[in-house]
Amino acid sequence: MENNLNLLQDARDSLNQVLGPFQMELNRKQRIADFVKQCIRCTDQDDFLQLDELLRSKTAETAELEQELSLCRPVFSLLRDYADRQAEMYRLRFAEDIRKLAEEAGLPVHIDFPDFSILKGIEGTVNFRKRFTVINKKILKTVDPRRIIRAVLKIKNQLYEVSYNPQAFVDSLCKTYTEIIRRENRASGDTVPIRQFYIAYIMTLQSRSFLQTMEKAKFREYTPDQFAVDIWRYFQSDVKASSDGCVLQLRPGRNSSLWLIDSDGQRRQITGISFQEKENDSKKTIGTAQAL
């Protein structure tokens, strides 16, 4: 009985060893076949933007090296020229199409080609020559307005569709600020470097479990973009001070700064943050983000 079990175990292991590389090769060829099918669909629909993306990809290079697909090479070359010409001509219609798609999605959009902005805190630049778009410093390998708007909607959900209470937000900022100046024996109202503050604030958002184990999986991300949008939403609210009557102030500058959004909705490099007594009229509040 034991000999039979050993025989079956050995047979299974041997078959797995044979099947593994064979299956990997099948999967590889299937991916290439799916790629060629995508190209065919794009030609059927005259979707030159997606076709242009596909033919610039690594998978296109891989497909051309396949001996069984050698006839694809001249076809791909012709399609590359066609898609490239069409995409360059499309540049003139791009602004109109992205504006239309944004409006259909209920998104306010401002376009100053090649730059565009959609909502506060979401900004992009289109590079038609190299066929990519940068949205909030992240590269999207496309100039297709459909994909750009889908990416924007995803970012919007991340930045704006989270639970938000402006009073609780400014109170949490004030608490972090107070803890820093107490710990460092600073005077009330002193300016704290914004990067130091940002890191300290992120730590206040972490769970007790994370603080105990420091496991990456338990870390709650809070990006500078989210920080900027939350501050902007605070400015737009009816809340003007923390619960204990302190007013938020930002200090603009260039060194060790974060790009935040001031009360006028402008992106500005901010180097410091403080809270001032509401009654103290000798200092301007955050709304004007006065310079040092």
What overall geometry do the principal axes of the alpha carbons give? flat
| SSE pattern | HHHHEEEEEHHEHHHEEE
Poorly predicted ranges (pLDDT <50, ≥5 residues)?
Answer: 280-292
- % residues in beta strands: 15-25%
Could you give the count of β-strands?
A: 9
Q: How helix-rich are the residues, as a percent range?
A: 40-55%
Structural Rg: 27 Å
Please specify the SSE layout and strand pairing.
Layout: H1 2-45, H2 48-55, H3 58-65, H4 72-104, E1 109-112, E2 115-118, E3 123-127, E4 132-135, E5 138-140, H5 145-160, H6 166-183, E6 192-193, H7 194-204, H8 208-213, H9 224-236, E7 246-252, E8 258-261, E9 267-277
Antiparallel strand pairs: 1-2, 2-3, 3-4, 4-5, 6-9, 7-9, 8-9
What report would you give on this structure?
With 292 residues, this protein is of the alpha+beta class. Helices cover 54% and strands 15% of the residues. The protein is built from 9 helices and 9 strands. The chain has helices spanning 2-45, 48-55, 58-65, 72-104, 145-160, 166-183, 194-204, 208-213, 224-236; strands at 109-112, 115-118, 123-127, 132-135, 138-140, 192-193, 246-252, 258-261, 267-277. The strands form 2 sheets. Strands 1-2-3-4-5 form a 5-stranded antiparallel beta sheet, covered by helices on one side. Strands 6, 7, 8 and 9 form a 4-stranded antiparallel beta sheet that branches.
Task: Provide a brief overview of the structure.
With 292 residues, this protein is α+β, with helices and mostly antiparallel strands. Helix content is 54%, strand content 15%. Strands 1-2-3-4-5 form a five-stranded antiparallel sheet, covered by helices on one side. Strands 6, 7, 8 and 9 form a four-stranded antiparallel sheet that branches.
